[in-house]
Amino acid sequence: MGARAFLSRLFTRAPRPQTPTIVIVDKSWRAGDLAECIVDGTWYSLEDGATKPGPSKGERRVVTQVELSGDAAGHMVLWLTFAKSRGQIFRADQFRKIVPQADTACAADADFLPWLKRQPVREDV
Predict the structure, then answer these.
(1) Measured between alpha carbons, how far apart are the two ends of the chain, in Å?
(2) What does the pLDDT look like over 78-111, one tens digit per residue?
(3) For the chain, where are the E strands, in sequence order?
(4) What pLDDT, in 10s, does the model give residues 13-49?
(5) CA 91 to CA 72: how far, in whole Å?
(6) What is the CATH class of 26-114?
(7) Are the C-beta atoms of 94 and 39 separated by less than 8 Å?
């Protein structure tokens, strides 16, 4: 082995290992959640690329199924299915989860009522 080949092997960097693409996914989606569309665009079929009808920006739909799987680029994506769009799946990052505020208030009331019932009744004279 010549000096040039030896030095070439010594100072040549090894190829860096491919790091997997990390996609942040909101895994809090559940069936029954209310989703609001946040994108304004055309929806396409995954099979043939044809345009398909889908929700418009600001439209709200009820989630019927949630699935975590890869997309065409190999990224892990959370997919949502809606009752109104049978047979179609949509990327969860194109929707905003609507959290009902009344449920939070009712839960707080339910926690507070037992404490309130334990308080002695006071009569004002």
Answers:
(1) 108
(2) 889 888 777 788 888 889 998 776 555 566 666 7
(3) 34-37, 43-44, 51-52, 60-70, 76-82, 85-91, 95-98
(4) 666 555 545 455 567 899 999 999 999 878 877 677 7
(5) 12
(6) mainly beta
(7) yes
